[in-house]
Each structure stands twice: as C-alpha cells, then as structure tokens.
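Example record for the data management plan.
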Amino acid sequence: MARFEMRVTEAAAGTGNLRILGNAATGTPTRMTLNLRGAPGPGTAGETALLEATAGWGGDANPLVAALPAEIFLPVDDEIAPLIRFLLAEARGGRCGSAAVLSRLAEVLMIRLLRAEIERGATAPGLVSGLSDPRLSRAIVAIHDAPGRPWSNTDLAAAAGMSLSRFTDAFNSGVGETPQAYLRRWRMTLARQDLDRGHRVQAVARRYGYSSSEALARAFHRQHGTNPLAVRRSPVSDSTAVAPDRSAAG
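Corresponding structural encoding:
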C-alpha cells in the first residue's frame, strides 16, 4: 500500500467518488461506496449522501485499483459506525485541523472498503481474486515485499504452502496470468515509479533483479512500449527510493 499515495479530500455534493450514504429521514449512516475509476452510481430510494469525498490511490498504475469492480461498497456495522460518526462530526464542526482529520479518517475507511472487497472475492480472475485466496495471497505478498528477489515458481509455491503443480494451476486460474508474468508486471510498475522519480536506470535494474540496464530496458519496453530514459525525470539520490510496505500487498 505504501507504493501508491492515497489522497482523500472533502468534495462538494454530487462530485465525490467516496460517499457515506444514510437514511434520508433519520440521517443514520447505512453504507459507504467507492469508485476509484469514475463517477459513483446513484443511491437507492430513501438514501442521501451524508458526506462526499474525492479519493484517489495511484490510478490504473495501482494493480489493485485496476482489478476492482466499477463500484465497491461496505455496509455500516457496529464496528465502523463510531468511526463514521466521528468523521461526520468533524465534517460538520469545521474546527481547526478538520481537513487533515477528515483525510486520515477517510483513508482508514477506504482501506476497510478495500479489505472487505478482497474478503468478498471476485467472480473473474484477477488480483482481487488472488488476494482473496489465503494461499495465493501469501505468494502475492511475497512478490510485493521483495520484487527484486529471483523468485522461482518453486519458491512462490513454498510461500503459498502448496505443491508446485497445484500452485501454478491455482495462480493461473485465480489471478489470470502465470506467477512469473505477474512478477514481471509488478517489477515494471515499480520500475516506472522509480524512474519517474529520477532514479538511475542502472540502480533500478539492480533493485528489481535485472542483470544490466539493457535487460531492464528490454523488459520495460515490452511492458510500457517506451525506453526507461523516456520516462526518467530529474535525477535524485537513489537512497530516497521508496521501500515496499512489508505488511500489505498493493
């Protein structure tokens, strides 16, 4: 999750893609909805938007965002109801620092929405489907945690606690691509981020397990259709590279 910046800001009525909906008569929160790739759908009869925010999390470069359905939702239960009441109170109070508080609380709610969607699973192959399987999830998290490691399918099967044949079959059917294809795509996503921040091609190649700048350039061109130098911004110190989050995939 640390690889992609999450931004949440309060939005005017009818413009937000993260919404807290509630009973129109009583104002009681009933559910949250989120659409990270467009405008949200209409609420049901008797619902009203109690709060709207504009939320973003890396766009289609984030593989989890790209794998999500058009709209995800989470009913308000006893566990998150106090958090939502606190958020609504902050929004209505207009006190000093309320914008920062709203942003942080909304980020927590977004993460809860995403977790719920992963736990709900998916009917079509993709990252959400893979993460919803506890065994495949362990392999995917291992890839995300150490993208530069020379992962073999045998290594990933061991991380998943499965035999090699069962793992490769389950990964292919669940995620919709081979483990090595997913590993390459994740490396190229991270490489593009680092190059966009100005890191040297040679340093990025070493970071993600490529033997040379040329090897990285070939893989990068296959994935992105351009040369790494074409996307590299003003040089920065490679010591500022963002370390992947060791606790979560994404």
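Summary line stored alongside the record: The longest strand covers residues 47-56.
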